[in-house]
Design goal:
- By secondary structure, the chain is an alpha/beta fold.
- Helix 10 links the parallel strand 9 and strand 10.
- The radius of gyration is 26 Å and the shape is globular.
- It is built from 14 helices and 10 strands.
- The strands form 3 sheets. It has a 5-stranded parallel β-sheet with strand order 4-5-6-10-9, with helices on both faces. The chain has a 3-stranded antiparallel β-sheet with strand order 1-2-3, with no helix packed on it.
């Protein structure tokens, strides 16, 4: 292992020199440690700093011949010098507690009635931006309802809603730059909607027709768009996090004024890729904003069966990543936190972790019945009393920026557009059979050619079981 690390270090150094990347900063000497905030400085916006500065160079062989450093004053703390850095020592055997006695506070701006909490620290939102944010949240609601019903009618094979998490989708998207690269999980279609992906494009993907950018190879809701810097959704959980760290590091090397942004659910934090992604981004000081939707459930697995820590926010601090916990049902809080985190990531070239506290009101997907593992009254409570769309709508209305007439027109128009998009998507032909085997290898392998031939023969024998144009 040591030999592997040594070779890797030499290889990276050689690549930097050969590619002219020696100027890319990898900070190693921190003479002035970054300020550390306690978990409980109860300002309305609390970012948790790592306990220590980033990396330390041991100077034992050069300037400190003695392992134990002691000042001339007996009362001053003594230090031990290790390759991992200097640390104080104590003669008292004391274990770090498994968790703090107080939970990390949750940043919010709007109360449950849609009014701004006194002395809130937040990024101001203009009328134009606020109205667009609400319109997109309402559009996402209508889109989820129509596509969910289409699946129940057998018109598409699968669907997954964002009900209860509309504020996280839209407000986070509004806070980003179009140049920021998004690596989603699967419950963030609102980010793509905000960036200009049309209802027709959503419908084409769900129906897997010839107009689908994924050529019909992906399940419904696995959207992707090069134009909108939105990586294609991938079913395996958490694989996008190490990829986001790599994307962020690439943006850093290219000196782009942008960051990578990736989403994950609370269940995904049990995957190894979550920890690898955070650690990679922290060590390489990559501009990545990690957004975790802590909605209480990973399909039927409750968060109490996922971890014993104080949620996800403290995990960032463990990896040396600045972190914050946010009310994910508060659009103003989400917008302010993501915009601030994005600014930190880009200007300071560092990763940031945001834990969005929310609730998954809908079933996990059309393959799930969540009433089998949680009470219907609980779902109804969050749907009605803690609805993020209603809360933000109340604030917009109180400002005089929205009316009942506006609401009626928007939902009626959106529903009409969606139904037309679905009808049009159904009329498109499906992708031809050949597309199933293309784009895998530059030159098809022998076994792929054999599989393609075998499938063609099967379709010719049973054409009634396959769509027209599939041959």
């Amino acid at each position: 292992m040591a030999m592997w690390f040594a070779r890797s270090r030499n290889l990276v150094s050689s690549l930097r020199q050969n590619l002219g990347l020696s100027a890319i900063p990898i900070k190693r000497n921190y003479t002035s440690p970054r300020p550390v905030f306690t978990n409980y400085q109860l300002s309305s916006r609390v970012f948790l700093n790592p306990f220590t500065s980033f990396r330390h160079e041991s100077t034992a062989a050069e300037t400190h011949p003695d392992l134990v450093q002691q000042s001339d004053h007996e009362d001053d703390a003594q230090e031990l010098d290790f390759p991992g850095g200097k640390v104080g020592y104590t003669s008292e055997m004391k274990f770090i507690p498994e968790s703090s006695s107080r939970r990390v506070p949750c940043y919010r701006v709007l109360n449950e009635h849609g009014s701004i909490i006194s002395n809130s620290d937040y990024v101001p939102v203009s009328e134009k931006l606020a109205v667009r944010m609400y319109e997109q949240m309402a559009t996402l609601q209508v889109m989820d309802h129509i596509f969910y019903e289409a699946q129940r009618q057998g018109r598409i094979s699968f669907y997954l809603t964002s009900v209860g998490e509309e504020a996280i989708n839209i407000a986070s998207a509004a806070a980003l730059s179009p140049e920021d690269v998004v690596l989603p999980q699967y419950r963030e279609p609102g980010v793509l909607l905000w960036r200009g992906f049309t209802l027709e494009e959503f419908a084409n993907q769900c129906f897997g027709n010839k107009a689908d950018y994924g050529k019909g190879r992906q399940m419904p809701i696995h959207y992707g768009s090069n134009q909108h810097n939105y990586f294609t959704v991938s079913s395996p959980i958490a694989t996008q996090l190490p990829q986001a760290a790599g994307v962020g590091y690439a943006l850093k090397m290219e000196k782009k004024n942008a960051c990578a942004v990736t989403f994950i659910g609370d269940g995904g934090t049990s995957e190894g890729d979550f920890h690898a992604g955070l650690n990679f981004a922290a060590v390489m000081e990559a501009p990545v904003v990690f957004i975790c939707r802590n909605n209480g459930w990973a399909i039927s697995t409750h968060i109490s069966e996922q971890f014993r820590s104080d949620g996800i926010v403290v995990k960032g601090q463990a990896y040396g990543i600045r972190s914050i916990r946010v009310d994910g049902n508060d659009a103003l809080a989400v917008y302010s936190a993501v915009r601030s985190a994005r600014e930190m990531a880009v200007t300071e070239q560092r990763p940031v972790l945001i834990e969005m506290m929310t609730y998954r009101v809908g079933h996990h997907s059309t393959s799930d019945d969540s009433t089998k593992y949680r009470e219907a009254d609980e779902i109804q409570y969050w749907k009605m009393s803690r609805n993020p769309v209603n809360r933000f709508k109340k604030w917009v209305e109180d400002n005089g920026w929205w009316s009942d007439e506006d609401e009626s027109k928007l939902r009626s128009s959106t529903r009409k557009q969606l139904l037309q998009a679905i009808q049009a998507a159904e009329k498109w032909e499906k992708q031809p059979l050949t597309e199933l085997f293309n784009d895998v290898y530059d030159v098809k392998t022998k076994n792929l050619e054999e599989q393609e031939l075998g499938l063609k023969e099967l379709v010719e024998k049973q054409p009634q079981d396959y769509p027209l144009g599939f041959h």
